[in-house]
Design a protein that fits this description.
Length: 255
């Protein structure tokens, strides 16, 4: 078996990676929340990490928190901007995309363009990034996209556009796993997680929502960004995980 694998390595010019030590991991949406937690986790495992985000101030603060990794300010929905991020790179072992906005509104009384901004962030953005990075990803590399619980459990509370986008990202990942083989493409699907994303509701609104959600979850609590990052690490390090949607939602899609 070792001889067979050695032959495959020689023919395909690939080398299996058993850890993240020395690997270059690019995290889009890395200035806060799940992206920042993921960047911290891969750096702790010996990876070289590049943080990419829209907000320069937040990105610089994140870099200081992590001890000064590389950063690149870019809007994932701006194709030229994303292309510029990867233009100066020579190799991207793993690409992790956690970027994505959160626009809520019932279709009857919300501007459709506002709702479509979610689709641009969560579908068009990853397509731009993957296209730009593709020539830099080795055959042993991987891509991790971010879906969400709404894909399996629509809420009916003005989140139809987000549900559409996260379901679409799962389909995109599965299709790309076949199209880009042997590069692996997986999706992490978080449920409700304690991140700054909920700050738009104000402190009272955020607390009320997360408390109510926690009551209905089997485990009785909301998830953390670190727990989602742990799941992403699994997708990066396990070379047999491919075309998978990994649900980290506390069982929320069943209640």
């Amino acid at each position: 078996m070792r001889t067979l694998w050695s032959y495959i390595e020689k023919v395909m010019n690939i080398t299996p990676r058993e850890s993240l030590v020395g690997a270059h991991v690019v995290v889009l949406g890395a200035s806060t929340g799940i992206g920042l937690a993921t960047a911290a986790a891969v750096k702790a495992r010996g990876a070289v990490v590049t943080l990419v985000g829209r907000d320069a101030a937040k990105l610089e603060a994140a870099a200081r928190e992590l001890g000064g990794p590389r950063i690149a300010v870019s809007d994932i929905t701006d194709r030229r901007s994303i292309e510029a991020v990867f233009a100066g790179m020579t190799r991207v072992d793993h690409l992790v995309i956690t970027a994505g906005n959160f626009a809520v509104g019932r279709i009857a009384d919300t501007d459709p363009d506002q709702l479509l901004s979610v689709v641009r962030d969560r579908i068009a953005g990853p397509l731009y990034a993957i296209k730009a990075a593709l020539g830099l990803i080795p055959l042993t590399g991987s891509i991790v996209l971010t879906g969400g619980e709404l894909s399996d459990r629509p809420s009916g509370h003005g989140t139809s556009a987000i549900a559409c986008a996260v379901r679409g990202i799962e389909a995109l990942a599965r299709s790309l796993a076949l199209e880009l083989k042997p590069i692996r493409v997986n999706t992490v699907s978080p449920g409700f997680v304690q991140t700054p994303m909920w700050d738009v509701l104000g402190s009272e609104g955020r607390s009320g929502l997360l408390t109510e959600v926690a009551k209905r979850l089997p485990g009785g609590r909301i998830g953390t960004a670190d727990e989602i990052a742990d799941a992403i690490i699994l997708l990066l390090e396990n070379g047999y995980m491919n075309a998978e949607v990994l649900h980290i939602d506390g069982g929320g899609r069943f209640v």
